[in-house]
Amino acid sequence: MSEGSKGSSLAFGQVVIGPPGSGKTTYCHGMQEFMGRIGRKVTVVNLDPANEAMPYQCAVDIAELITLPDVMENLKLGPNGGLIYCMEYLEANFDWLQEKLAAFRGHYYLFDCPGQVELYTHHDALKNVFAQLAKWNFRLAAVHLVDSHYCTDPGKFISVLCTSLSTMLHVELPHVNILSKMDLIEQYGKLAFNLDYYTEVLDLSYLVDHLASDPFFRNYRRLNEKLVEVIEDYSLVSFVPLNDKESMRQVMQAVDKANGYSFGDQEQRSLEALMSAAVGADFHFTSTLAVQEKYVQSQDKAVEEEVMDL
């Protein structure tokens, strides 16, 4: 895995990114178990120096190199400044990371990354780490987790779309955006539109009109229109819903297509797996439909209960 060694074998994996509380560590734990059951050798790499309670089996931990509490105490930095320092320190110690990863050749890698949004939107340290991994023949896809409850607030959803777009452009990796915690979305209120409107990021002018009905946002209609124009002009952002084992399989298929694993030689694939990769455009609609049906069923049940109460 030496730098510039074109003849060395490829390594595949995911860099799991997203804001704090979006479920990155839980995702890594679930994906490690899921892939393990289908026979894929998985190595989880913790790159979050603030991550102390890890539910998954961690093979490589940045805490062996540097920790956020130590940085904050010794350099008198806050959590945000401390995380940036930790990532810059990791960037300056590529040899440590290379040595640790070399012990797991032939494995599939899950990189559990910090939750500071600035690291993915404009700071270069983590982006440079990903670029260095690419030089070591890693084929990575960025898995960007977003809490699904933002869908219930149009203003927050536009903000999420802008952040997702900025992250995609800055990180410069094949990208899969995921709406996490879909099983909890009903707790935050009803959606203004069908779920596929949010996953496919359909005509956002309806969202602007919906926002205009709020007296607070009415004064910012022009700003929202311009933000929506930027998102739609790039036409890059869409989401895959995640809420159960079936959606976990569909997420894995999306990521395998993004980083090229589906077409590599790392695993004996069945004809069904090859076909699912070849016609994978269908899976997104199917997964969205499945979650949408569950969401609608729960809403119908709530209406029935209200009628019964009357």
Automatic annotation (TrEMBL):
<keyword id="KW-0342">GTP-binding</keyword>
<dbReference type="GO" id="GO:0003924">
    <property type="term" value="F:GTPase activity"/>
</dbReference>
<comment type="subunit">
    <text>Heterodimers with GPN1 or GPN3. Binds to RNA polymerase II (RNAPII).</text>
</comment>
<keyword id="KW-0547">Nucleotide-binding</keyword>
<dbReference type="GO" id="GO:0005525">
    <property type="term" value="F:GTP binding"/>
</dbReference>
<comment type="function">
    <text>Small GTPase required for proper localization of RNA polymerase II and III (RNAPII and RNAPIII). May act at an RNAP assembly step prior to nuclear import.</text>
</comment>
<dbReference type="InterPro" id="IPR027417">
    <property type="entry name" value="P-loop_NTPase"/>
</dbReference>
<dbReference type="InterPro" id="IPR030231">
    <property type="entry name" value="Gpn2"/>
</dbReference>
<comment type="similarity">
    <text>Belongs to the GPN-loop GTPase family.</text>
</comment>
<keyword id="KW-0378">Hydrolase</keyword>
<dbReference type="Pfam" id="PF03029">
    <property type="entry name" value="ATP_bind_1"/>
</dbReference>
<dbReference type="InterPro" id="IPR004130">
    <property type="entry name" value="Gpn"/>
</dbReference>
<protein>
    <recommendedName>
        <fullName>GPN-loop GTPase 2</fullName>
    </recommendedName>
</protein>
<dbReference type="GO" id="GO:0005737">
    <property type="term" value="C:cytoplasm"/>
</dbReference>
